[in-house]
Amino acid sequence: MKKGCTFCSIINEPEIQKVYEDDTNVIIEDIRPAADLHLLVLPREHIRDITTVDDAKTLDSLLLTAKAHLADFEKMEKHVGFHQPPFNSQYHLHMHIVSGKMNAKQRKRILNPGWTDIEKAYELIDFLDLSSKARAPASMNLPNPSELNIPPPPSKCSSPPPSS
Ligand SMILES: [Zn+2]
Ligand SMILES: [Zn+2]
């Protein structure tokens, strides 16, 4: 639980009605619904946003919770996704599920340029994971330049003599 985080407070406030909750995740209704149905699936653990998720298991878990505990999830006409910074309204990872009629203004609020649908979210996590793995070992295994057998750069006078 992070001090000052609205979602951490909501998650840990027993008086606030939840759609579903277990030891890992919580489903709540968005207080400013953008459509007939607008839910948020949050991990209990404070994770800042989609760019700080460690691996795809967190996404799997949020998605499985939604599938298991929301009737008709598979059949729903829906948008499922996340907001990427700086388009987050709350810095506690939350997966939006938006279904049904949306008005233009709310559509703009939800499907703004930071919107990352679930497929893109998995790609993003793969990409961030790969780039962090690529960075760490590469910097540790860089060979000492003096051990490399690199020929010296050609000097200016060594151009081949004219052929005739
Ligand atoms: Zn939080
Ligand atoms: Zn959001």
Would you write up a description of this structure?
With 164 residues, this protein is an alpha+beta fold. The protein has a single domain (6-130), classed as HIT-like (HIT family, subunit A, 2-Layer Sandwich), CATH 3.30.428. The protein is 30% helix and 20% strand. Strands 1-2-3-5-4-6 form a 6-stranded antiparallel beta sheet, sandwiched between helices. A hairpin with a 3-residue loop joins β1 (20-21) and β2. The structure holds zinc ion (2 copies). The site of one zinc ion has 6 residues, from α1.
List the ions, cofactors and other small molecules found in this model: zinc ion
CATH architecture: 2-Layer Sandwich
What is the average of the pLDDT values? 86
- How would the global form be characterised? elongated
Q: How many distinct domains? A: 1
- Give the CATH level 1 class: Alpha Beta
Spans of at least 5 consecutive residues whose pLDDT stays below 50 are: none
CATH superfamily annotation: HIT-like
Strand-pairing-aware structural class: alpha+beta
How do the SSEs run, as a string of H and E? HEEEHEEHEH
Number of strands: 6
Helix content: 25-40%
The percentage of residues in β strands lies in 15-25%
- Annotated CATH topology: HIT family, subunit A
